[in-house]
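Course assignment 3, question 2. Fill in each field.
Student: A.L.
Task: Predict the tertiary structure for the chain below.
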Amino acid sequence: MKLLLSIILILPFHTSFGYGKPDTGKTKLRISRIIKGRPASIGIVGDTTDVKTPTRAGSVLMGGSTDVDDAFKWMIARSGGGNVVIIRASGTDDYNTYVDSLGKVSSVETLKIDSRALADNDTVAGIIRNAEMLFIAGGDQSNYMKYWRGTKTMAAINYLLNKKHVPVGGTSAGCAIMSGFYYSGEIAGITSKQALANPYDSLVRIYDNDLLHAPYLSHVITDQHYVKRNRQGRHVTFLSRIIKDKGIFANGIASDEKTAVCIDEKGHAIVLGKSKAYFLITDNKKLPEICAQGKPLTWNCNQQAIRVYELPASANSSFDVKSFNITKASGGKWYWWWVDNGELKMQEF
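Answer field:
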């Protein structure tokens, strides 16, 4: 058995890219080690024995950058303290000691699933299916699509979401693939300016419910790093494309950096962290006026194209993702968003 020693230290912060360390306010000695015979595993903390704990479903949509401790604690509470699995296609096992430091769990294991062969491996899929909590790290969502779509790994994640009912979350790229509709970024990332200038830019590639099937998110598209990277315009463009191409009036959920939307088994969402989350609601009576190849997007509808709820991270935050019912939201502010000739505009009401 090859051992890799890792000790939790009190260091400044932990990032979703796996290069930082947590500020836990405590130290404890739980060794992260590699165990032979576990394909894709790049480290495990705790007991490898498969345990059975009472779990409650939940989804976490984290916006990237510094991870949200309280969102992980929310997931750990729903896991019943069982086996935690982190999956990714690049990076290290740095999440192991971080998550282990935040609550009592049987184990935390990181799987680096960076090929379709590993994603279709029975042992890898079995480790995922035995999890009481799963988290998808940041990275490149096009790799997750390329390696995991249509494999036993995909089936195992959907088993956790819809049969075993355990908490499943993701940050940044991991958050991007949590929704039924998702932006792949497979060629290169697109900015709001580019997307609004041409909704049919070759970089705008949206996929429809062919990867993960999280409860309440089949007609949702997420975005991340939202305010920090000015992604509101591209998110609106994604919604316009779904309407134009699919005839489906999807909704949007977006988390800013250092922020997470936590959705429970009834579809009730709260926002945790440091910044804000956004809930975008489309209306089947309000179609984009111009959504065409080579032309700037116009989606005005009397300056009331999209109803948007801005919800700061707070104990009082509340939004109903099950229904997107405007009467069930509290703790935030309502806005109208619209687009004129490729320019996104916003007005509080």
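Instructor remarks: Residues 1-52+68-172 form one domain. The CA atoms of residues 14 and 20 lie 4 Å apart.
Grade: pending
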